[in-house]
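Fold it.
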Amino acid sequence: MDEGNPIAYTVLVPGVPVYADDGERVGSVERVLADTSEDIFHGIVIATEYGERLVLAEQVRALHQLGVNLDLAATAIASLPSPGPLGTSSPPGGYGGGPTAA
């Protein structure tokens, strides 16, 4: 599958398909969570069949123009946390800085 060129989180747009580590499509990008003033990528919120789910930056393998690849199995998507209001709530342990929707 051709997902286009690698991209930075700053140009990732809503609607881009999201794929599990086995290539199965598990959702689409809703929004990017980042501290743009510090240039820190915190993760993404994805729309899934289970509702919106929070994917942390360390769970994202690659960002491309036409697809996001995760380091997660498709079966793990349902157990990901739901984002808080506007995607700003952090999971236990936090982010080390207040994420904002980029």
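Residues 84 and 90 are 8 Å apart (CA to CA).
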